[in-house]
Amino acid sequence: xxxxxxxxxxxxxxxxxxxxxxxxxxxxxxxxxxxxxxxxxxxxxxxxxxxxxxxxxxxxxxxxxxxxxxxxxxxxxxxxxxxxxxxxxxxxxxxxxxxxxxxxxxxxxxxxxxxxxxxxxxxxxxxxxxxxxxxxxxxxxxxxxxxxxxxxxxxxxxxxxxxxxxxxxxxxxxxxxxxxxxxxxxxxxxxxxxxxxxxxxxxxxxxxxxxxxxxxxxxxxxxxxxxxxxxxxxxxxxxxxxxxxxxxxxxxxxxxxxxxxxxxxxxxxxxxxx
Length: 274
Ligand SMILES: NC(=O)C1=CN([C@@H]2O[C@H](COP(=O)(O)OP(=O)(O)OC[C@H]3O[C@@H](n4cnc5c(N)ncnc54)[C@H](OP(=O)(O)O)[C@@H]3O)[C@@H](O)[C@H]2O)C=CC1
Ligand SMILES: O=C(O)[C@@H]1CCC=N1
Description:
Blueprint: E1 6-9, H1 13-24, E2 32-35, H2 40-49, E3 52-54, H3 57-63, E4 66-69, H4 73-81, E5 92-95, E6 116-121, E7 131-136, H5 143-154, E8 157-161, H6 167-176, H7 178-195, H8 200-220, H9 226-233, H10 239-249, H11 252-273
Parallel strand pairs: 1-2, 1-4, 2-3, 4-5, 5-6, 7-8
Antiparallel strand pairs: 6-7
The chain binds NADPH dihydro-nicotinamide-adenine-dinucleotide phosphate (NDP) and (2S)-3,4-dihydro-2H-pyrrole-2-carboxylic acid.
NADPH dihydro-nicotinamide-adenine-dinucleotide phosphate is lined by residues 9-14, 35-38, 41, 57, 70-73, 75, 79, 96-98, 121-124, 176.
């Protein structure tokens, strides 16, 4: 385990997920600090994980070897600008923000100095150890920095390195944002079932267990394609065929492609905005 001091600037949902993974995997809470303007989330983090907390971003960043930037993209510029007085040359920065390029962080309105910064894209299932993250390291990042980033991002699940920064936008569409797609699908199933007369709680229990079962079938049968697994459910002339045909007639795959393209386009637009 590393002895690097890690600070999180922004103590929201994603920081909590990553901190939870780190502490649960044995990282010393004494080496972790979270900084946030309001204190409620800090108190909860301190109570749950015994980490250090502060409302002073500058002090937290100054004391850290690794700084995880975890505020909303809209706030990133002002948060970085307030850290300009620090010498960041010996620190590793990790950003989890969507849609802000790695190069942008060195600009005069951001950190205003060359930095060692790794861009990552986690997802909310990190909270329960089943996260999936993408990571992009620019050319100035060494193996030791990559190793600590990998340790942080795999503490709550899996992580992959991407070769090109543009691929991070595909990671957003496939893994960062996609838990919401699955939740939307389950939402729609529960809504349909309740409209057909089933009690909400029962409908949720049925839909979520089917989702879990389908996810585990994918994981535990790497030799079978998703298409084959689908076909194994679909009896000739049976019920599944009717349901699946309905999705195909409604162009589900075209809709999914459009949704992912729109997700990527938004990430690209954010890169211009921020
Ligand atoms: N949610 C997701 O699924 C994913 C999110 N991301 C990225 O993670 C980042 C954070 O998202 P998420 O955790 O969901 O957002 P949250 O809103 O949950 O967390 C952001 C935190 O930043 C805090 N904050 C606001 N201003 C400052 C400041 N000046 N200094 C320090 N902290 C500040 C907020 O505090 P307060 O509430 O007190 O204002 C809040 O606790 C975003 O950039 C997003 O793109 C990446 C992958 C997945
Ligand atoms: O919606 C967003 O912008 C963030 C990034 C991926 C998931 N949530």
